[in-house]
Amino acid sequence: MQQELSGEDPQQTATGVPPMIPAFGRVVSRNRLFAAIFVLAALLRLATVLGYRPAWVYWFDSFTYLNSAIELTPEKSWQPGGYPILLWLLRPLRSVAAVVVFQHALGLAIGVLVYLLLRRRGAPAWVATLAAVPQLCDASFFRLEHAVLSDTLFMFLMVAGVVTLLWRDEVTFRRGVCVGLLLGGAAIVRTIALPTVLVAVLWLVVRGAGWRPVLAAFIGAAVPLSAHGAWYAHHHGSFSLTGSGSGVLLWARTMTFADCDVIRPPAEEASLCPNGVTKDAASEYVWDPNSAINLFRGDEDTRDSLARSFAIRAILAQPLDYLHAVARDTSIAFAWTPIAHPKRTTPAYGFAKGVWPVPDNPLLEKIQQRYDPRVGVLRSVDPYAQLIVWYQYVGYLHGPLKLLIVLLGFAAVWRRPRTAVLPWLTGMFLLVGPVAVLDFDHRYVLPAIPLLSLAAGALAARR
């Protein structure tokens, strides 16, 4: 098994692209432990599909994505248009159930990629299998995959990009382009991925890969980024990934520590100082009608620009307070009992039994007519739903185990840097980055898990 995964492959040498599909076939046929875990993960996802029909469709995010797919127009918000392109491609099926089935398949593929790379790098089969288990078997991933949300596509592109880059020590021009395409594609799904392109390029430079792979990665990333920017400019008049709103998010982050006596903002930003409204999470300041940002009088672009300026000013004036807020909120991920943040949310164990109608909204009828008539009500169906409700309490990666994965990955950075550095740095960025620019969310922890697990598994790799 190890010889087949690590030896030279004529197809790979010719094309520069790792032959992962043939490798997967060998894995399933030769490794009974991983095959059993994979089959279990597939059956649990099937039970999720049968137990919750048709899919989770959330107001506001899901409806925004679906509307963008129907109109094939990027939204003028902080959400880029990559995920709506996938929804548009699947639109002929007229089924959000088909969308989530596809996403469940991507979830399985992520686990396979983690396993394959670790085996190729010489990790024992049981270690590689263990590293893939969180992605394959944690019920939190089932729920995310079963929602019309961008996260699963984002995770797949990120993991596929990292695995493609690490598949062989020598990075060819063609493989560099593939890596750039994947990571650039992830950036047009969620903008938090944009700096990871630079992380990958820096990794190539430090490795001494030469200028050709570095140039190739930039070229590959430029294709989706430029295409999205041109698409956005065609509809909204400016070359961008997103519209206004990112400044407001960063402003909300600072509301947990900002002291205007220290910041001393100029007069035009003074109205954005804390106004006495106190929330239990930074993200809540975005939505509270009485928060300073929502009492601001002016157009959205001006508001966003001033909010960004205020936030940067606050971070520079109070850097230690900012770092403390980010560290404090990130640590929520490592609690044994999931902590609700904000308190009104359900932090974990989100599967239940019942009927959940979508709140009436101006897009509901349009989406029913032009995408899927079944959107509007989510129903649980026994016995499948009961199985998943029970399983979620067993199949959950508790916080201390997440911390252990982080620490094992950090140890692997020093012992197996060629394999561990890139996934660990990328995973840590995906873990901390969302907290640094807005707030902690249990949902945003999940994209970091497969990459950090990959880094942790590298501790047992031979190279």
Automatic annotation (TrEMBL):
Localization in the cell: Cell membrane
Domain of life: Bacteria
Signal sequence extent: none
Protein name: Dolichyl-phosphate-mannose-protein mannosyltransferase
GO BP, sorted A to Z: lipopolysaccharide biosynthetic process; protein O-linked glycosylation
Keywords: Cell membrane, Glycosyltransferase, Membrane, Transferase, Transmembrane, Transmembrane helix
Record GO terms (molecular function): mannosyltransferase activity; pentosyltransferase activity
Species whose genome carries this gene: Thermostaphylospora chromogena
UniProt xrefs under InterPro entries: ArnT-like_N (IPR003342), LipidA_mod_glycosyltrf_83 (IPR050297)
All residue ranges annotated as the ArnT-like N-terminal domain in the record: 101-202
GO CC entries: plasma membrane
Record-annotated membrane-spanning stretches: 33-52, 96-118, 148-167, 179-206, 393-414, 421-438, 444-461
Membrane-protein topology: Multi-pass membrane protein
